[in-house]
Amino acid sequence: MTKLIKLLPYYWVTLIVIVLDQVSKYLVRASMEFGEIIKLSPKLIWLTYVQNTGAAFSLSFGSPQLNRILFIIISLIATILIVYLSTKSKNKYEVLSFALILGGALGNLIDRIYLGSVTDFIWCDFPDVIMTRWPVFNIADSSIVIAIVLMIATTFFQKETDEEKE
Fold it and tell me: pLDDT tens digits for 58-84?
């Protein structure tokens, strides 16, 4: 229990991600027509309102109802695992990464529970990368990607401290 209390500052990050994600999705649903595209720049960043019943890159089990049930279950299991792993970690960057992942997972879980799909709206073009345009994503997805990059960078570049050796 004391470990969870020590993690509260990191869970503020989780809460901020959830709030930013849900507010941005609400604004998109309230102000854009489904499928509408707003070009913030000629080619790089566009806003478009889509609903994704699948997972990352629109991966799917074939049925929107099956997707909803399975992804809710997977998200709940992931949430429990992330909280558990964060209590075991002694590395503040790893705990921050878990907080970002948790915020992203819960942001998308809220959509799945209440809407049956996830609202996506950020559409980017990364020139000469495997596909014409990157799949549409949201703030929750971005939070997860940032966390993964942070974990990789920490793994490669941070020296182990005495506290982490114990």
Answer: 566 677 788 788 889 999 999 999 999
Answer for the pair 95, 82: CB distance below 8 angstroms, yes or no.
Answer: no
Q: Token digits for 111? A: 């959509």
Q: Which of 21, 111, 141, 162 is catalytic?
A: 141
The set of residues, in sequence order, having a beta carbon less than 8 Å from that of 94 and lying 6+ positions away, is: 86, 151, 154
Q: Which of 120, 125, 128, 162 is catalytic?
A: 120
CB 52 within 8 A of CB 58: yes
| CA dist., res. 92 & res. 158, Å (int) | 11
Exposed/middle/buried for residue 135 (C-beta within 10 Å: 0-12, 13-18, 19+): middle
Is 21 annotated as catalytic? no
Question: Of 140, 108, 125, nearest to 37 (Cα)?
Answer: 125
Q: Where are the domains of the chain?
A: 2-31+51-116+137-156
State what percent of residues in the chain have pLDDT above 90.
58
Integer angstrom CA distances of residue 120 from 44, 58, 70, 110: 17, 11, 19, 13
Is 111 catalytic? The answer is: no
